[in-house]
Design goal:
The longest helix is centred in the N-terminal third of the chain and has 21 residues, at 22-42. Helix 9 (319-328) runs parallel beside helix 11 (373-384). A six-stranded antiparallel sheet has the order 1-11-10-9-8-7, covered by helices on one side. Strands 3-4-5-6 form a four-stranded antiparallel sheet, with no helix packed on it. The chain has a two-stranded parallel sheet with strand order 2-16. It has helices at 22-42, 144-156, 175-188, 195-199, 216-228, 234-242, 262-275, 311-316, 319-328, 361-365, 373-384, and strands spanning 12-14, 46-47, 55-57, 65-68, 71-74, 79-83, 86-92, 97-102, 107-112, 117-121, 124-129, 158-159, 162-163, 247-248, 251-252, 335-336, 344-346, 368-370. The model is unreliable at 1-18 (pLDDT under 50). The chain contains eleven helices and 18 strands. The chain has two domains: 7-129, no CATH class; 144-384. It is globular, with a radius of gyration of 21 Å. A hairpin with a 4-residue loop joins strand 7 and strand 8 (97-102). By secondary structure, it is an alpha+beta fold.
């Protein structure tokens, strides 16, 4: 864990960048909301998340904090690092910015940039953390502001070098979620955040789902290794050995989420082997598999259309519908009706929802995680790939 200084004892220096004025913050927020309106035209199905106005700070390896109701909360200590008497708060998710108009007539900005986390107040720059991240503006994309916000939701769920489904409700990574998040980090030049975690991987299966060995994990581990290492990583040999009990003719089959998904599992293993330049002896079986369509980035022709995810699955785990949208070039997936967050999961039996009370009790009551790494990654990649 990186050490950082609490606000009241921070080193301060004259700001190189000027504060946002209220009109500038409002203009940036309007641009973001206009982009959201365009997205909602394309994807008319929406979900009304709890009306809680907050914003997370601490992307990647930076300390996790949350702004809400005039306070900047250190989520590790669960104490306020700073409080203000606020007249108006303007949260601009695409700029990683909270602009505060105070009761005393002054203004404060809390913002993350490529170089760190800062508070700008009284012509001074307060340093919360200084580490480098690649934060593209995606100005060449139709949904550039949305992609910036989704990139934030992926990065905010990287904690202590681990890619988590939600950094508050989960303590361990899930390999399939981590692989989706890894694709985003590869596209934005931030895979170094996962180097230590991937380097120390030593189990072919995450065994998060009731202790079971889930076959798709094998390909996901190989892909994750390819992000920061090569075939010399010790876990590669373990994966090669672990696949044998699941081999059936020229494909693999076993359990994923409690069911057999041979198409999905074989696609993942083939992709993992391909990512490391390893020999591939497998063929994708030509049979129906409801998970085939959520593997959208390769082997797309190897698909026998079968059952689709229904609206209940879309509501609970919206990343499934976003993946299917990418595969079928459709627009069924749900879009949050709030400015922030844009991603979630609900009713996850493995999530510690009580931890979300720190943000707001409504999240725990509704069993809903505000932000979700895999949802953000699937949504990001779908919009990123649009031409």
């Amino acid at each position: 864990m990186r050490h950082f200084l609490i606000v009241l004892s921070l080193f301060c220096l004259k700001a190189n960048a000027q504060n946002f004025t209220k009109p500038q913050a409002e203009k940036s927020l309007k641009l973001y909301r206009d982009n959201l309106a365009l997205l909602r035209q394309d994807h008319p199905n929406g979900r009304n998340l709890p009306d809680v106005k907050f914003f997370f700070f601490g992307m990647g390896d930076r300390p996790k904090m949350c702004y809400k109701d005039g306070a900047l909360i250190n989520l590790e200590t669960q104490k306020a690092a700073r409080r203000w008497k606020v007249k108006e708060a303007i949260i601009v998710p695409s700029e990683y910015l909270v602009h505060l108009e105070l009761e005393n007539g002054k203004a404060v900005d809390i913002q993350e940039t490529n170089t760190g986390m800062y508070i700008f107040e009284n012509q001074m720059q307060v340093i919360l953390a200084e580490t480098n991240l690649n934060l593209p503006d995606f100005s060449d994309k139709k949904f550039g502001p949305i992609l910036r916000e989704l990139h934030h939701e992926v990065l905010i769920n990287v904690k202590d070098g681990m890619p988590l489904p939600n950094f508050l409700a989960f303590e361990k990574p899930w390999y399939r979620d981590a692989a989706s998040m890894g694709m985003v980090l590869k596209n934005t030049g931030n895979t170094n955040l996962l180097t230590n975690w991937i380097t120390n991987l030593n189990e072919p299966f995450d065994r998060n789902n009731q202790g079971r060995a889930e076959v798709d994990n094998l390909g996901q581990v190989l892909f994750l290794v390819s992000l920061v290492s090569d075939v010399k990583h010790p876990i590669v040999e373990k994966v090669i050995e672990a696949r044998e009990p699941f081999e059936h003719n020229d494909y693999v089959v076993g359990r994923t989420d409690g069911e057999q998904h041979p198409v999905y599992q074989t696609k993942w293993l083939k992709f993992g082997l391909k990512s490391l330049g390893l020999k591939d002896k497998y063929k994708v079986p030509l049979e129906q598999d409801s998970y085939s369509s959520i593997f959208w980035w390769d082997f797309k022709k190897d698909n026998v259309q079968g059952l689709r995810f229904d609206e209940a699955a879309n509501l609970k785990n919206p990343y499934l519908a976003w993946a299917e949208d990418d595969f079928y070039n459709e627009k069924r997936a749900l879009v949050s009706l709030r400015d922030y967050p844009l991603t979630w999961s609900s009713d996850n039996e493995f999530a510690k929802f009580e931890s979300l009370n720190l943000i707001d009790p409504s999240f725990g009551e509704q069993k809903l995680t505000p932000t979700h790494g895999r949802h953000a990654a699937e949504m990001f990649m779908t919009l990123f790939n649009q031409k």
